[in-house]
Amino acid sequence: MNRNYDVIIVGTGVAGLFAALHLPRTKKVLVICKDKPDISDSYLAQGGICRLQGESDFESFYDDTMRAGHGENNPASVERMIRQSEEVTDELISYGVDFARNKDGSLAVTREGGHSRNRILYHEDCTGKEITACLLERVKELKNVEIAEQTVMLDIIADKECLGIVALDKKSKKTESVFADYTVLACGGIGGIFEKSTNFPILTGDGVAIALKHGVAVDSINYIQIHPTTLYSEKGGRSFLISESVRGEGAHLLDKNFKRFCDELQPRDKVTAEIRKQMQKDGTKHVWLDMRPIPKDEIKTHFPAIVKRCAEEGYDVFKECIPVVPAQHYFMGGIRSDTDGKTTMPRLYAVGETCCNGVHGANRLASNSLLESLVFAKRAALNISEEYTAANRTVKVNLQGFADTDKIFTEYKLMLQNAIKEADDERLKRN
Ligand SMILES: Cc1cc2nc3c(=O)[nH]c(=O)nc-3n(C[C@H](O)[C@H](O)[C@H](O)COP(=O)(O)OP(=O)(O)OC[C@H]3O[C@@H](n4cnc5c(N)ncnc54)[C@H](O)[C@@H]3O)c2cc1C
Cα angle at 44 between 415 and 95, to 5 degrees? Predict the structure, then answer.
């Protein structure tokens, strides 16, 4: 890692990698990540990525997204995301992503809760890994991009505008100020601050906390999605997701008497509420999910990772129901960004799950997140290229204040928790 770059990208998920791929090859780019590059939620995405199914699908895709988001979505962002869905998924294919295909070679499409038709591209039940691993390979081929793993952003360098970051190299234990003309935050979600989450624990909303610290606007910070179906386990650790497409393909939710109790294809927040109500009524710690209504062959080809993980936990999905329970899953709120990824601080961009451009409103529609991350990461990179000017890098940074990293991250967590609570309290007052 050097001290000067043209652009710094914080994050190696789909958002960070796609931004790197769309910056000019003449720019010197640093991409950092807290752990290894493949430790990101992007790798965990199971269900798939939405793609507009021709012009006749536009209204329905738009309405499904708005309905799931309770109409609190930003219409301009939703429209841009849908309109660019064919372009970015075509690009993924050109990079080598292998989406499932029908016998005639056309792209296969599946369905998840909240969607009124099939429009989700997938690769078995590990679409995120297929996409992100491919993007990572393409980025590694770029001579202008350096990837620094085990490198943690502790803060941004701000003097009315963003001039870079303060970064800790976990291997050498050295903290450095790293300057750049533009900084792109692509730091993912906030699941790491919750006890039960499907997210990697390292994803603790650092970008959002740093934005709060510097007075950069954030939006909908209390809009946190709980996924209705994660595998119930007495063991600790990350909650294993049972993708919504399992219900999309026909799986049933059952109560303690193995009776259906809700429409499984409603948006996530509604199914979560129904499950919690049922658990309270039954006095149980979970409900059951029955995958047996799905044809055996479909289970084998579409959901091999789920079958394997359930077997590891002692469940044979072909013969019995599996216990499922809701857990924290996604962050709809985040750093306010416009449709070009710009935040309220000059030279600072935010893309992917860490930002809030209003696409998801109050609740994300399944399989819109990978798409949103890609579309707006590309837009941000193109906007940086178009508006590029050099920054004044004369600001001095006092690195002594960054010696105690545990204290820094404890403060960030507290800051985030307080902001979420305040936003929740305000919402309660309004209603
Ligand atoms: C189990 C699971 C299943 C999902 N399934 C789907 C699905 O089927 N379809 C869909 O559309 N979405 C799905 N999602 C959501 C989707 O995967 C994520 O929202 C999306 O991948 C986020 O991408 P991202 O690039 O913004 O962040 P991430 O992929 O999470 O990457 C974050 C990056 O930021 C880095 N970082 C964070 N903080 C710092 C710091 N302080 N310093 C340095 N680096 C930092 C991390 O190291 C990491 O590299 C799923 C999510 C989960 C958890």
Answer: 115
Q: Is 188 in the pocket of ligand 1 (CB under 6 A)?
A: yes
* C-alpha 319 to ligand 1 mean position (Å): 33
| The ligand 1 atom nearest the CA atom of 48 | 8
pLDDT tens per residue, range 342-401: 999 999 999 999 999 999 999 999 999 999 999 999 999 999 999 999 998 778 899 999
**Domains along the sequence of the chain with CATH:** 4-223+332-430 (3.50.50.60), 233-328 (3.90.700.10)
Give the Cα separation of 218 and 19 in Å (integer): 21
d(C-alpha 202, C-alpha 192), whole Å: 6
Q: Is the CB of 34 inside a 6 Å radius of any atom of ligand 1?
A: yes
356 sits in which H/E element:
strand 355-356
- 3-class DSSP state of 328: strand
d(CA 116, CA 111): 8
14 lines ligand 1 (CB under 6 A): yes
